[in-house]
Design brief:
By secondary structure, the protein is mostly helical. The chain has five helices and no strands. The relative contact order is 0.11.
Length: 112
């Protein structure tokens, strides 16, 4: 049986997927070095912009082809190369988060 309390209290079970953001995000001391921020929701556009900024041929060399299930797509062209959480994962989430009470309890466990 899954127990969020056991995971929270067990350092041996730490995993970034269920840890608070403060446990794995970039430390503030590195903020000054950031010069690009991309978003998963706009990954195709953002990766193209990043590679174009890196050099005139970076998109053609690394992003234009060789991606997707059959290696014939550009980087992030299809949902299969963008979606971190599959529809199966979304269905599981809906299965376990069946009420507002459960969601609030989980939020309280992981609040920062």
């Amino acid at each position: 049986l899954f127990s969020p309390e056991a995971l929270r209290d067990s350092p041996g079970c730490w995993d970034a997927h269920w840890a608070p953001l403060s446990h794995w995000r970039l430390e503030p001391k590195f903020y000054a070095t950031l010069n690009f921020v991309g978003h998963l929701e706009t990954a195709r556009r953002d990766i193209r912009r990043l590679l174009d900024d890196l050099g005139s041929d970076a998109w053609e060399k690394f992003g234009a082809s060789g991606w997707g299930e059959y290696g014939n797509e550009s980087m992030f062209e299809s949902s299969s190369t963008v979606n971190h959480a599959s529809e199966k994962a979304s269905a599981r989430l809906r299965e376990y988060y069946t009420s507002k009470d459960i969601e609030e309890r989980v939020d309280k466990i992981y609040e920062e």
